[in-house]
Amino acid sequence: MVAAIKRPGWIRGALGLVAAAAFGFGLVVVLRAISGLPAFQTEQTGYPQVVVPLITGPLGFLAGFGCFDYWLRWAAGMPTIPEDHSQHGARSWRDYLRFNTDHKVIGIQYICTNFFFFFVSGLMAMLIRAELAQPGTQVVDAATFNGLFSAHAAIMIFVFIVPVFAGIANYVLPLMIGAPDMAFPRLNALSFWMLPIAGLLFVGSFLAPGGAFDAGWTGYAPLSTGAPLGQSFFNLGVQFAGASSIATALNFLVTIITMRSPGMTFWRMPLLVWANLSTSLLVVAATPFIAGAQFMVLLDRVLSTQFFQFAGGGDVISYQHIFWFYSHPAVYIMMLPGFGIISEVISTHARKPIFGYRLMALALIGIVVLSYSVWAHHMFVAGMFSWLRVPMMITTLLIAVPTGIKIFSWLGTLYFGKIHTYSTAMLFALAFIVTFTVGGISGVMLGMVPLDIHVSDTYFIVAHIHFVLFGGSVFTIFAGIYHWFPKMTGRMYDEKLGRVHFWGTVVGTWGTFLPMHWVGMDGMPRRVADYAAQFGDWNLLISVFAFILGAVQLVFLYNMVVSWRFGPRAEANPWRANSIEWQVSSPPPIFNFDEIPRVVGGPYEFGVPGARHAIMAGEGAEVPQPEPTVAGTP
Amino acid sequence: MNGRLPIAKMLAATVALTAAISAVMLSINWNGQQASTAAPKIDDLLNIMIVLSSFVFALVMVMLFYALWKYKAKPGDESDGEPIHGNTRLEVAWTLIPTIIVLFAAGYSWVVLDEIESKDANPLTVDVFSQQFAWSFGYPGKGNVWSQGELHVPLGRQVQFKMHSQDVIHSFWVPEWRIKKDNVPGITTTAIVTPDRAGTYQLICTELCGFGHAAMRAKVVVEPPAQFRKWVAGVKEKVPPPYMESIRQDTETNPVQPVGAGGA
After folding, report:
1. pLDDT tens string A480-502
2. pTM of full prediction above 0.90
3. Which of B150, B97, B46, B208 is nearest to A153 (CA)?
4. CA–CA separation, A77 vs A6, rounded Å?
């Protein structure tokens, strides 16, 4: 028993959670008693006796669970435990449920956790559509409805789309660059374990007095600064998700820059690696802004700091500037890794080198640079200084250029290829091109100030973001999951069920989100629990397609779960791809490579006679040595 | 390699598809009724964008489906495609042409923006007061009278709305006018509109403001000037002091003025 308490794991984690939460609670009560205040404060924005334990409790859990053990021992000058690899790799399913430093285990932990929250949040979307199927109030009241769509968006963004890309890259990227693991495996594990905390805070807010946070995922002040306790859950959840995101991005940057195998120059990196390099640059520089904005809201709520309180000298609009300075780049954080996935899938299944590889990589960097200069296009009607609108409109529209380069280059890749469409991954990649083009077009329209004045904050926006985030990001996530499923699980999934999922998702996506454009332009605002009767038929149609879209995701879930357990064994390289992760077994050995591979050519040399991307261990004799470039120099 | 593609046929297909999509899309009245001088200008911009967008979409569709039809691998064919790594001329083309299109769109938008925001010499000023979850309107030019839940404006005269929020952010939208502006606590925001069609419309709050957000509507009546003057003369209720206070205290950070003329 004592041993179980001393050992890092769930028991010590639970004790840490309880002890740290109790400490936070006691601290508040004692400090308030010393100050002569009543022990509890239950004004809706206050509740320090809840907010402080919400900060200390999760940290106590992380400490108890073992996330800081090595560092704390080292920092305290105690003898560190020699690395015996007991925390590395999965030998049974139990190893997925503990602190594990293997990037492949962490990748699976991410993906499973993220999809759990995808289904939770999807269920909220179903409730939203059930309420909106008819004008008037049938399923939930207006306050609950506001909580539902706020939590739906927050969960989808912060604990599904952003981290699931990190999960996929966690699994695939070190293998792709020929690295034995990520640069900082313990930090990597900590990044993962912060995520379920964020997700549980978002979901847990429904239990708070006053209900879930209901100021939208954008949480505009002063609606958010005056909202009930649930809003504090959101403020804190964003901190955990944000810290996780930043730590992972640093990890990717260091891994990509310093741990590429010999011969893997920048211009020989697969585009997925380029995409995650660009994404990580965005995350590292932009995410602190949303963390800061949410801290300021929290301080306004709990300590009356008046950052955004006009009555106390604060500035209401500055919240939106800080928020969107992160949240517009966030759109690309949610899209660039998907671009990388699509490049891998299309090149492999068209048996063709990527068309214009260098321009594809440069377009990613171009998007990174431009995306920092467009945030105020979310604020054309917000009452900010009017002269800011036209420069932001021009930069916004210019982002269409590097994005267009990517679309046309994928299309160019198909030409003179041998296109195989048997894989569900390829189907999603092709459908992505069509759907994302529509989302890009509506994005250009939204960037134009006069059109934006009319359609901003209407269902047109809802249509646009779902075309780019569902038809864009989520399609690429599905493509990535199907593509690397054999590598991750060592099993093949069922292509027939994959096709059912694919066609259901395509029909559901278009049927749900296409009519929303028109409904919005014709006068239906977003974020409303009730609407004018004239939009009733359209909303019923949208809801029916939304239910199809929701139901068909269960086919995906069934396919993944059953195939993981019972699917036929996968070969090392079922898609006959070139990149390094396919040259090792499925699933890969615990330490990835017996010997670090040597890279001798580009990653997409399909059809080039005798071309090789990498030479694996024990097969170097017949192939010439790579030219003596130092890893890290392009 | 370009010579091996039926470029002319693909272009013809793109043009035909563009025409077909545009024809369908332009036949739909997307934005609904037009009731201000700004509305036709914004709708014209939308129509131009529909044609340009149809072209882009048609081009992507033709390129995609031609490739899928022409280069689909035969069953059992395990060979690779041709090792083509790129084509500099093509890559330059699909960088430059979209740049020109979006710069045109930006320039045209700028022109429209200037037109719809150009101020008349003598606009009627109306104060808009928003609060959870109701609208009220002050007519200071007419002796500080106010109306609740019902906005009246004269037909054909430019109206300048000065907007004040009493609590959280709200947004003022009359779809038929194509005009929207947030009401921000602490500052006065401004929007101008010239109604050119008499009738009754709905003012909709479009910024999430709480549980009553969906129901935060007001009636908008556009009527001939004589009728408007009669209506205002009949209004007796004065703007209550707290609302007058918000007019005095709010800073006007953002007067409507041509872009480029600087901030406050």
Report:
1. 999 999 999 999 999 999 999 99
2. yes
3. B208
4. 19
